[in-house]
Design brief:
Number of domains: 2
Order of helices and strands: EHEHEHEHEHEHH
Number of helices: 7
Strand order of the largest sheet: 3-2-1-4-5-6
Helix content: 25-40%
Oligomer: single chain
Structural class: alpha/beta
CATH architecture of the largest domain: 3-Layer(aba) Sandwich
Radius of gyration: 19 Å
CATH class of the largest domain: Alpha Beta
Number of strands: 6
Length: about 210
């Protein structure tokens, strides 16, 4: 933090990066979005123009290896998260990564241990932790208002892709509907599990960092 601000490199200039990640960094005066990177250079160029922040790049390896960056924010397609996160950790960068980190939990644990050994901070984009209702419920639990929670039941409802003929939502609408996929678990099931573990008190979820 030579400039007194966290310098951020954002990987991915798609809808989620533009709707949440980049605006979030820009709202915090302690942060500086230094570079926005996308393999489709025109998307990175457009994001830089839209937000008036940083410079654009289409070379993620060059971005990750930059010595003037403190944090790598990974807002790319799911299958790219793990290799990008590994590269960022190995380059000595703190990492904010969209879910999932990897498709095998052993890979996630290994990478978490690697980051910890290097003294790096990592975080997943579990944004539902910050919603007012979830925050209020956690405050009631912490105050002892509801006693000690032992059981958590979570329910996901996301109507934007529901098809009454196909109960299981698929990430890829062209996929074989007869084959079970982890669409809900990977998408909104993961935040539900995170909230449940956080409320019930499992230590691996970690504290909410503000």
């Amino acid at each position: 933090m030579a400039t007194g601000k966290l310098r951020i490199g954002v990987l991915g200039a798609g809808a989620w990066a533009r709707a949440a990640h980049i605006p979030g960094w820009l709202r915090d005066p302690r942060c500086d979005v230094a570079v926005i990177c996308d393999l489709k250079r025109e998307l990175a160029d457009d994001a830089v123009r839209q937000f008036g922040a940083g410079e654009s790049s289409a070379d993620w390896e060059a971005v990750v290896s930059r010595r003037d960056l403190d944090v790598i924010d990974i807002a790319t397609p799911s299958h790219t998260h793990y290799p990008l996160a590994v590269a960022a950790v190995e380059a000595g960068k703190h990492v904010l990564c969209e879910k999932p980190v990897a498709y095998e939990f052993q890979d996630t644990w290994t990478l978490a241990r690697r980051a910890g050994a290097k003294g790096l901070l990592t975080k997943l984009g579990f944004t539902f932790r910050y919603s007012p209702g979830v925050q209020y419920a956690k405050s009631l639990i912490d105050e002892g208002f509801v006693g000690r929670p032992l059981v958590f039941n979570g329910f996901e409802q996301n109507s934007q892709w529901l098809d009454p003929q196909v109960p299981l939502r698929q990430v890829d609408h062209t996929a074989d509907q007869a084959v079970l996929q982890t669409s809900s678990l990977e998408g909104y099931g993961a935040p539900i599990i995170d909230i449940g573990m956080w409320w019930v008190g499992a230590g691996w979820c970690g504290p909410l960092v503000t």
